[in-house]
Design a protein that fits this description.
Layout lengths: L6 E4 L28 E18 L7 E2 L6 E9 L1 E12 L2 E18 L4 E10 L2 E3 L6 E4 L2 E9 L4 E10 L1 E4 L6 H12 L2 H11 L4 E3 L3 E4 L8 E2 L2 E13 L3 E14 L5 E12 L5 E10 L10 E7 L6 E14 L5 E14 L4 E14 L5 E5 L4 E7 L2 E2 L8 E4 L3 E11 L3 E11 L6 E12 L1
Antiparallel strand pairs: 1-11, 2-3, 2-4, 2-17, 5-6, 6-7, 6-8, 7-10, 8-9, 9-12, 10-11, 13-14, 14-16, 15-16, 16-17, 18-19, 18-30, 20-21, 21-22, 22-23, 23-24, 23-25, 25-26, 27-28, 28-29, 29-30
Helix pairs in contact: 1-2
Length: about 450
Amino acid sequence: MRARTTLLKRAAASITAAGVALSGAVVLSAAPVQAAERVETPFAYQGSAYGTRVSLGDPNAGGVESGRTAWSVLGCTSMAPILNNNGSNVAKLNANSMIEVGAVDSSTSSYRKPKRKLYGSRSINKVAGLTIGPDDGPRLKFGAFTTTAHAFHNGKRFRAEASFDVLNVDYFDIPESAGPLGDLLDAIDAGDNQLIEQIIAGAGSEGIAIPQVGTIYPAGTAKTPSSRSGATANAYGIRIALENGSQVNIGRAWAKIQPSYPAGVFAGHAYGLEAKLVDGVLGIGRTPYQNLPCIGTDGEWKKNGLLDLPQNENFNAGALRAETFGKPYRDGRAVARARATVADIVLGGGALEIQGVVGQVNVFQNRKGRVVRRNIEGTRIGAIIADGEAQEIPAPGEALEIPGLALIKAGLRQNLGKRGVRVHALRVELLDGTGLVLNIGTAKAKILR
């Protein structure tokens, strides 16, 4: 058995799509999120960070996907400082004996340092440790690592930084090997950080294969675009493709900053459908998905469409579309809308067909910044046909049960505080023992101050 420990630090800000270029870690000073009073600022902030996400196959083509662990979200806001934290003890991932993860902690925040004219959004994910491989076989072990995304305005321009830092790399029961793996093990033995960086960069998109385990991609890509209209920082941790066909993404952080309008900022999204199995595992992700940008859409509908859903053994759907709309006015008024449409969906092997599903929400703000109206006007269902017979369409908030086939709930509205609203045009729960639940025609919109 060979086992060595070294220190590997790398900054994902220098990673390129063609390879992995590694440099020193970006050091960021902590944001004064507790010392300053929370106030409205001239900027709009967003962020997200999570520890792990596991998939088996393509979730949009019949595969399954787990939820995000220790997921922290900074929703679109112009307020600072804000700090959100979320933690999780992950251990084995979805009973996957090939991956073991230590405690995970994620945070997202907005901050302000007015004396320095510094405003920003920061997202951080910390994983206490990661072991790849079975308990009685080849294993590669990483110590604690941190993924950080930071987008900010320094009083002159927008900037973005991203980093991925790893401490302590060990390996156990991995035999002598030629190629990238052998070079990596030799570099770990030698404690040569520069050589380790060169080997990882040289592996590029091919990754480094570990026999009886899978392929590890020690760093993903990081894009930190910035312009006069804002900046976005994307930081990625480790991606692992296991021999059993599953893929694990560990360590993800994203942060964004933009100028905000006097009318406030927007938040929301629309998607055609989402399918969940038991225990919250996704059968189909939010498809197609369209977000409502923080600064709106300049009064135009932003659209995303899909002609047909990829083949799925449980259901088929056609002509799906998601749209969002955000219009800020100079006098303080604002309008936010979101709409999702599914023309046709067939479930239960053809026993149930639902046509013309539309979910829509509308939010209106007056000149004084007050949300004066929010509704789900435009939400509708064209037809529900079971075993060839048309069914009475339930009123909003009511349900229709088709014995042995499905429980259908219509117009599920949820007020989001005092400034937003969400609707699922339909929620369908199949009664065939699969535990499959579908949200169809989902729309959400908020105007925030």
